[in-house]
Amino acid sequence: MRLSEIKEILSTLENVEFQLENGHFVPEHFHVTEVGQIIKNFIDCGGVIRNEKVVNFQLWDADDYEHRLKPGKLLHIIQLSEERLGIEDSEIEVEYQGETIGKYDLEFNGKNFILKNKTTACLAQEACGIPSEKQKKNLSELSVNPTSACTPGSGCC
Question: Boundaries of each HTH merR-type domain copy (predicted)?
Fold first, then answer.
């Protein structure tokens, strides 16, 4: 989800709720402690220089159980970050504390924002020798040559 999309959605909501992909909810008393832009310049294992830019939201739940972040307040935080930091309309990455800090993509299901699990991947598979995926077949689909087949009592098994 891009920053422009969340702004559009927030303007239609009464409450802001984040839900993990496994169905668990981020506690209602969460805070958005950071809105920023992360720029990552790196080289992949194939030697290609890459540049990525994401808008980062950091969610945090504290012990102030009466806290509720309203859509208008989050919109204000986003607008402030755009004005003061020059944040661009990029994809959003959400940081949220589990056993460690997790990074998530963001989607909206019509009611809640969904924190989608992110995964790692090789960006240069052709350069680092990763074999292409083998085609999988069911054993029942394989043709059998009767002359090369093992039969009971033939001694081949």
Answer: 1-12
In which domain, by residue range, is 49 found?
Answer: 3-66+76-121
Q: Does 143 fall in a domain?
A: no
Model confidence over 24-81: pLDDT tens digits?
Answer: 999 999 999 999 999 999 999 889 999 999 999 999 988 888 889 999 999 999 999 9
Residue 43, judged by CB atoms within 10 A of its CB (0-12, 13-18, 19+), counts as exposed
Burial 110-133 (b: 16+ CB within 10 A, else e): eebbbbeeeeeeeeeeeeeeeeee
User: What is the rounded CA–CA span in Å between residue 58 and residue 35?
Assistant: 7
- 149 located within any domain: no
In a domain, 142, yes or no: no
pLDDT of 156 above 80: no
Instruction: Judge whether 138 lies within some domain.
Output: no
Paired tokens of 95: 């940081």
Indicate the number of domains in the chain.
1
